Amino acid sequence: MTLTRTYDSLFIDGQWMKPSSSETIQVVSPATEQVIGTVPTASIQDIDRAVNAARTAFDKGPWPTMAPQERSEILRRVRDKIAERRDDFADLITEEMGSPITQSRTIQVGAPLALLDSYLELVETFPFRDIRTAQSGSALVTREPLGVVAAVVPWNVPLTVAIQKVAPSLLTGCTVVLKPASETPLTTLALARLFEEAGLPPGVLNVLPASREVSEYLVSHPGVDKLTFTGSTAVGRRLASICGQNLTRVTLELGGKSAAIVLDDADLDATIESLRLASLRNSGQICSLKTRLLVSNRRHDEFIDRLRALVESMPVGDPRDAATQIGPMATARQRDVVQNYIDAGKNAGAKVAIGGGRTSQDRGYFVEPTVFTDTDPDMSIVLEEIFGPVLTVSRYEDEDMAVQLANHSPYGLNGAVFTSDLDRGLAVASRIRTGTVEINGNSAGFHAPVGGFKDSGIGREAGYEGLDAYTEPKSYGLPHDFVLGLEAAGKSRVGSA
Ligand code: NAD
Question: What separation in Å is there between the alpha carbon of 235 and the centre of ligand 1?
Answer without folding.
Answer: 7
